[in-house]
C-alpha cells in the first residue's frame, strides 16, 4: 500500500521514524506538507500505531492502493453542513430565534448517531416555527463559509471531468445556492415550508435521511451509467454512513468518531483538498 501523510513539516518529521520502521520502498515529497511512502507493509498493529501517533501530532494519514487516482472515479458526492461548508445551517437559523444551544444539542446527538435523523430533524425544525424566512438569507450572507480546501478540491475534480453531487440533510435554500455558486451538477436536500413569509416548523415532502442519501448517490450513479464504486463520498455525521458505505472511496472530513472509524480516509486536520494528495 501507499501511505500518504499530510501536516506541518515538523510534525511529518516526527512521524517519519515510525513510518520508516515499516520499510517503505520509496518516499516521495508531494509538497511542503505532504509525503507519500510507497510499498508500505500494512498490519493492524502498524495502523493502530499510525492512528495514535498522527492524531497526537496533528497529522492526517491515509493508506491507499498504489496507482489509484481521480481518474478511477466519475462522481464526487458531498454532505453540505460541516463538510462542504463550516457551519450547521439549522443551528445558525435557530440562533436567529435565540434557540441555538437547544437545536445544536440535538444536531450533535444526531451526527453522533445517538438520535434517529428524521426524528431529530422534525424536532429541530419545529423549534423554528414563526421565524421570518429572511433569516435564511442572513445565515447564507453572514455565516456560511466554505470549508478549507473546498474550492481547490472542486476545481481539480471538475477539471478531470468528475460530476459533483451535494446531498444534504439540510435545506434546499442553501444547497441550490451552493450548486449555482460552485457549478455543481446535482443537489438534493430538504424543503422548509414557508407560510406567509414565516417558517411553519415543518418540512415538505420526504426527509433526506441516511437512507435517502444512499439512494440519491445510487440514483445519480445510474443516471451517469457508472457503478457506485466509482463514487467518492465525503461526510462527517452518522447520517452519511450509508452513502459512504456504497462508495468506492469514503472520506470522513473532521468527522464524528463513529464516522472516522468506518471511513476509508479521514481528513482531521487538512482541508478537503487533502484528497488530491491521496489520489494523485
Task: Label this structure with key terms.
elongated, Alpha-Beta Plaits, 11 strands, 12 helices, alpha/beta, Rossmann fold, 280 residues, four-stranded antiparallel beta sheet, seven-stranded mixed beta sheet, 41% helix
* CATH-derived architecture of the largest domain: 3-Layer(aba) Sandwich
Distance between the termini: 14 Å
Task: Give me the CATH fold name of the largest domain.
Answer: Rossmann fold
* Count of structural domains: 2
Please summarize the sheet with the most strands: 7 strands, mixed
> Mean pLDDT, nearest integer?
95
CATH homologous superfamily classification of the largest domain: HAD superfamily/HAD-like
How would you classify the quaternary structure? Answer: single chain
Percent helix among the residues?
A: 40-55%
Amino acid at each position: 500500500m501507499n501511505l500518504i501523510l499530510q501536516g506541518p513539516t515538523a510534525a511529518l518529521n516526527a512521524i517519519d521514524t515510525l513510518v520508516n520502521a515499516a520499510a517503505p520502498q520509496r518516499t516521495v515529497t508531494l509538497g511542503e506538507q505532504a509525503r507519500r511512502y510507497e510499498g508500505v507493509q500494512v498490519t493492524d498493529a502498524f495502523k493502530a500505531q499510525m492512528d495514535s501517533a498522527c492524531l497526537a501530532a496533528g497529522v492526517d494519514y491515509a493508506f491507499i492502493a498504489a496507482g489509484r487516482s481521480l481518474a478511477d472515479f466519475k462522481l464526487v458526492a458531498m454532505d453540505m453542513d460541516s463538510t462542504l461548508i463550516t457551519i450547521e445551517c439549522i443551528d445558525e437559523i435557530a440562533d436567529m430565534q435565540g434557540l441555538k444551544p437547544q437545536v445544536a444539542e440535538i444536531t450533535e446527538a444526531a451526527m453522533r448517531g445517538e438520535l434517529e435523523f428524521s426524528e431529530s430533524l422534525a424536532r429541530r425544525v419545529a423549534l423554528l416555527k414563526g421565524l421570518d424566512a429572511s433569516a435564511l438569507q442572513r445565515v447564507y450572507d453572514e455565516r456560511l463559509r466554505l470549508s478549507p480546501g473546498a474550492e481547490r478540491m472542486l476545481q481539480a475534480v471538475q477539471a478531470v471531468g468528475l460530476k459533483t453531487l451535494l446531498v444534504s440533510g439540510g435545506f434546499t435554500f442553501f444547497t441550490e445556492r451552493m450548486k449555482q455558486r460552485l457549478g455543481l451538477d446535482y443537489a438534493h436536500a430538504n424543503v422548509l415550508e414557508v407560510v406567509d413569509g414565516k417558517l411553519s416548523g415543518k418540512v415538505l415532502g420526504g426527509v433526506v435521511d441516511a437512507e435517502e442519501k444512499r439512494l440519491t448517490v445510487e440514483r445519480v450513479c445510474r443516471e451517469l451509467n457508472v457503478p457506485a464504486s466509482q463514487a467518492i463520498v465525503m461526510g462527517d455525521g452518522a447520517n452519511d454512513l450509508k452513502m459512504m458505505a456504497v462508495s468506492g472511496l469514503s472520506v470522513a472530513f473532521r468527522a464524528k468518531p463513529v464516522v472516522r472509524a468506518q471511513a476509508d480516509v479521514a481528513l482531521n486536520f487538512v482541508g478537503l483538498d487533502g484528497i488530491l494528495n491521496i489520489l494523485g
